Each structure stands twice: as C-alpha cells, then as structure tokens.
Automatic annotation (TrEMBL):
PROSITE patterns: TSAA_2. It comes from the Bacteria. InterPro entries: TrmO-like_N, YaeB-like, YaeB-like_sf, YaeB_N_sf. It comes from Aurantimonas endophytica. Belongs to the tRNA methyltransferase O family. Keywords: Methyltransferase, S-adenosyl-L-methionine, Transferase. The lineage of its organism: Bacteria, Pseudomonadati, Pseudomonadota, Alphaproteobacteria, Hyphomicrobiales. This is tRNA-Thr(GGU) m(6)t(6)A37 methyltransferase TsaA. NCBIfam families: tRNA_TsaA (TIGR00104). One of its GO terms (biological process) is methylation.
C-alpha cells in the first residue's frame, strides 16, 4: 500500500492546487513492465491549455486527428475499416505522475486520482474511444474523428470496440 503524506500547497507551485496531495513515495526507478510504443497521435493540440479535457469536448470542436502506426506494426491493422470504433491506449508522456489527491475544476473538493479521468496518475495511460474516418493500412495512417491528447503522444495499443463485450449490461 502506498503511503500518502499531505503536502498542501496554497501557492499553486509546481502545478499543485490547494487541497491536492502528492504520493509520499517517489516514483520507482525501474520498469515494472516493458512497453513498446507502436506509433503516435498527430493532433491539432500543441499546448495543454488548448487541448480538450475529454473526448466529448474534442468531438464538439470537430477537428479530426491522425494515428501513425510504426511500420513493424502495420500488418496488425488488417481487419480494421473506416466507420469502426476503436479504443486507443496512449502514454500521456507529459502528465505528472505524483498526485494521490487532485482538486478538479469541476468538483467541490479533493478526489482520489483513481476516481478521475485525469491524465495525472501513477501510470499515465490514456483511453480514448474514437471512430476511424479513413484508413491507409499500408502507410499506417488512421484518420480519426477526434482526440483529446497533445500532438506526438505515444500510442501503446489499439483495440476494436465491440458492443457485445464493451457496452455495460442493461439494468
């Protein structure tokens, strides 16, 4: 279990808002898993301040993006087609990894990192459900409807959305 030590910061130094708490333990100096980036996302968003906060907000802006798949992984695109939805798993490489409690702008107080969709987390893995608008498998380019990550964000994986297994059961 990770110990949590309150480190309140009223001055908002280092991007920490009042009420936020950093993890007490430093990030491990070793890798627990070996991950390979299979490509990257090309988006219109160069700065965090301009980037949509979620995929819904990104769709409202109606700006498509592209996914670039590295050559070694392009054969795995076989079976994907325009019109299909896929989950993109990204490595949010510019996100902080040290907050246990965060104070989101939309909430009235602190919340645990695992109760939020924030990119700030111990393992900054992003999950994005996007629609493929066009695909050039040979070039490894997928045009997608929208995305809520910064340009150049590394891609870990993509998986098809299957309503039969991904949609929650009816109540």
């Amino acid at each position: 279990m990770t110990d949590i030590a309150p480190q309140h910061n009223a001055a908002n130094v280092d991007g920490v808002r009042p009420g936020e708490v950093r993890f007490a333990a430093p990030a491990p100096a070793y890798d627990d898993a070996g991950l390979v980036f299979i490509g990257r996302i090309r988006s219109p968003w160069a700065e965090r301040s301009a980037c949509p906060k979620n995929i819904g907000a990104a769709r409202e802006r109606a700006q498509p993006a592209t996914v670039e798949i590295d050559a070694a992984f392009r054969p795995a695109l076989q079976g994907l087609a325009a019109g299909a939805y896929v989950h993109l798993l990204t490595w949010l490489d510019r996100a902080s990894r040290d907050l246990a409690l965060q104070v989101p702008r939309h909430a009235s107080g602190p919340r645990g990192t695992f109760s939020l969709r924030s990119p700030v987390r111990p393992n900054p893995i992003g999950m994005h459900l996007v629609r493929i608008e066009a695909i050039d498998a040979e070039a490894g380019i997928l045009t997608i409807d929208a995305i809520d990550v910064l340009d150049g964000t590394p891609l870990l994986d993509l998986k098809p959305y299957l309503a039969s297994v991904d949609a929650p059961p009816a109540p």
